[in-house]
Amino acid sequence: MKIDVIGDIHGCIDELHALFEKLGYQKENNIFVHREGRIPAFVGDLTDRGPDSLAVIRLVYQMVVEHKRAKYVPGNHCNKLYRFFLGNKVQQKHGLETTVQEYETLSTREQKIISKQFRTLYEQAPLYLEIPEVSAVIAHAGIREDYIGRTDKKVQTFVLYGDITGESHSDGRPIRRDWAKHYHGDRWIVYGHTPVMEPRIKNKTINIDTGCVFGNKLTAFQLPEEKIVAVPSEQPLVEEKFSYFDND
């Protein structure tokens, strides 16, 4: 098995199409297929903030659920949108409001279809993916080595939100511990969630959320080749959204 793990898309459908093309995928029956049988794996946060979140949902649903030609794990934005589609009371901020605005322009029939598609995609998804064929684990915000194999509440919080401390920066972003520094496993942990200007490799972990929706680029990590492929973002650059880590 050969896989292409794709970072946080956040509604940037044009960049996703461009990345697929750069990776050698071709469009067939409204989905992207690789002639050598490579499998895309989406690391979560498909929607919010970007220009066309619903188009991303439709494409990923078709590839993962209908055609079974891709894999997907949910992110924290996916979790919040899922709760919105269930009818739960969620705060429409941090990007959810953009997806809801798109949704509210649809007819009632179209709303029912997209809601059902996303709920099905989310409900069928594992919390994180273990892919022994390429010795990798794909988890939206990462996963500690001793959490692999567990799906309890503590692990769910970590996988969706990262190693949060419960405290916040002055701009409201949660303060997170740098868990990757302490990872010593022999499997790749491929994750996103925290925007970085360049993919961050620490031990055998790689953060591929290169902030496409904030104007940088959309990145894929190819396994088993351990190759990084990226396309530039078409969105305006918002530099303050990016995190910087030391490299010790």
Provide the fold topology.
Elements lengths: L2 E4 L6 H10 L2 E4 L2 E4 L4 E4 L10 H14 L4 E2 L3 H10 L10 H9 L3 H17 L4 E3 L4 E3 L14 H9 L2 E5 L5 E3 L11 E4 L8 E3 L2 E3 L9 E7 L3 E6 L16
Parallel strand pairs: 1-4, 4-5, 7-10, 10-12
Antiparallel strand pairs: 1-13, 2-3, 6-7, 8-9, 11-12, 13-14
Helix pairs in contact: 2-5, 3-5
Features:
five-stranded mixed sheet, 28% helix, 14 strands, 6 helices, globular, EC 3.6.1.17
Strand content: 15-25%
The end-to-end span amounts to: 33 Å
Structural class given helices, strands, pairing? alpha/beta
Q: Which stretches are poorly predicted, pLDDT < 50 over at least 5 residues?
A: none
Output the strand order for the largest sheet. Answer: 5-4-1-13-14
What's the count of strands?
A: 14
- The helix/strand order is EHEEEHEHHHEEHEEEEEEE
Report the C-alpha radius of gyration, rounded.
Answer: 17 Å
Helix content: 25-40%
Overall shape: it is globular
Function: Asymmetrically hydrolyzes Ap4p to yield AMP and ATP.
Family: Belongs to the PrpE family.
Cofactor: Ni(2+)
Catalytic activity: P(1),P(4)-bis(5'-guanosyl) tetraphosphate + H2O = GMP + GTP + 2 H(+)
Structure described in brief:
The chain is α/β, with parallel strands linked by helices and 248 residues long. The chain has helices at residues 13-22, 53-66, 76-85, 96-104, 108-124, 153-161; strands at residues 3-6, 25-28, 31-34, 39-42, 71-72, 129-131, 136-138, 164-168, 174-176, 188-191, 200-202, 205-207, 217-223, 227-232.
